[in-house]
Design a protein that fits this description.
- The chain is of the alpha/beta class and about 350 residues long.
- It contains 15 helices and ten strands.
- The chain has two domains: about 5-220, Spore Coat Polysaccharide Biosynthesis Protein SpsA, Chain A (Alpha-Beta Complex); about 225-345, no CATH class.
- Strands 1, 2, 3, 4, 5, 6, 7, 8, 9 and 10 form a ten-stranded mixed β-sheet that branches.
- A hairpin with a 2-residue loop joins β6 and β7.
- The radius of gyration is 20 Å and the shape is globular.
- The protein starts with 5 loop residues before the first strand and ends with a helix.
- GO terms for molecular function: hexosyltransferase activity.
- It comes from Enterococcus mundtii.
- This is Glycosyl transferase family 2.
Length: about 350
């Protein structure tokens, strides 16, 4: 069987409401030389049955069902099965541009040594089945030919929300395999850490202004809002790894991004019903008293009003900080649109 140019890996979990639309979109991509690997991550609804019905007769598709272990594990399973020269990661409930593969092929013909393509995308926030905000995360066209220059701009690119996610990127399979870059089985930050582990080996990076993907974030339901006892540790690991990979060339910027991420952690603690109020106060106090937050709140840059306010918040007395985050969570419940706006202004 001929090896395809592109492998698209899609983790799927309880997606019976969206999987048919997703498969239809993947089948209608304006390109021929690709494969799709659907990894059913232990779905408990009709997802597996629907996949079987929809793709079993399509040679471009392969699928596997695994025990539920999260999207990182599912993507690793897909990587182990991928045969293409280049890897793309999509989610089951989003919308790739039909011309994405054609666009990537044309770019790679011009820049065959590119280790990474980073593209523009649309970030759409949904609440109660309605679009409450939509933003284009726009890439400025550029070609990095030195790793040092790419790393020098890393904070700026991260601050533009371009470098965290995996679905606006095209990766070289041989580079992933050579350095055994894989996702960690975390409930948050696994994409960010995976990207950093890959960026470390990129010598040529193509920044593509074309919009290749629309990501739909379910306000109040997305994984970024969920409480997890180890969530802060993954943000801490990301901060330390980012400084390591970039040789500490913008530690103040990375510190500001850590404070932003930690704010989402604190909000998830305030929202969860898994903890008592006493346990919430203890968890928030532990985070605010951690060495990495003490460092970050001291050195974080303040190149926007929201960053100034965030740094101010993290320097409040702990008892005031606790009541402030409880209030902020109540505001988030009432007005997810406001929270989405503040995130965009960061």
């Amino acid at each position: 069987m001929k090896k395809p140019i592109f492998s698209i890996i899609v983790p799927v979990y309880n997606a019976e409401d969206t999987i048919e639309r997703s498969i239809d979109r993947l089948q209608s991509l304006e390109f021929n030389d690709y494969e799709v690997i659907l990894v059913n991550d232990g779905s408990t609804d009709k997802t597996e049955q629907l996949i079987h019905q929809l793709v079993d007769k399509n040679p471009k598709f392969q699928w596997v069902t695994t025990k539920n272990q999260g999207p990182g594990f599912a993507r690793n399973e897909g990587l182990n099965r991928a045969r293409g020269d280049y890897i793309l990661f999509f989610d089951a409930d989003d919308t790739p541009n039909r011309a994405v593969l054609k666009e990537y092929e044309q770019l790679l013909k011009k820049q065959p040594n590119a280790d990474l393509i980073v593209s523009s995308f649309v970030f759409r926030t949904i609440d109660d089945e309605k679009v409450i905000s939509e933003k284009i995360n726009q890439v400025t066209e550029h070609l990095y030919t030195k790793r040092e220059d790419f790393m020098e701009d890393m904070y700026t690119l991260m601050n533009q929300q371009l470098m965290y996610v995996v679905w606006n990127k095209c990766y070289r399979k041989d580079l992933l395999e050579k350095h055994r870059v894989r996702f960690k089985n975390y409930s948050s930050c696994e994409d960010r850490i995976f990207n950093l582990d890959y960026f470390e080996y990129c010598d040529e990076v193509l920044m593509n202004p074309g919009i290749v993907y629309t990501y739909e974030f379910q306000g109040g339901k997305g994984i970024t809002n969920k409480y997890n006892a180890n969530k802060f540790q993954t943000f801490e690991e990301f901060y330390l790894r980012a400084n390591e990979v970039t040789n500490n060339n913008n530690k103040a910027g990375m510190a500001s991004l850590l404070l932003k991420g930690t704010t989402s952690v604190l909000l998830s603690i305030a929202e969860t019903h898994q903890l008592t109020n006493t346990e919430k106060r203890y968890a928030i106090k532990e985070i605010l008293n951690s060495d990495v937050i003490k460092e970050a709140r001291s050195i974080a840059c303040t190149d926007s009003i929201i960053k100034k306010l965030t740094k101010f918040y993290f320097n409040l007395p702990i008892i005031i900080a606790y009541h402030t985050i409880i209030l902020a969570n109540k505001i988030q419940r009432i007005s997810p649109r406001l929270i989405a706006l503040l995130k965009r202004k960061y």
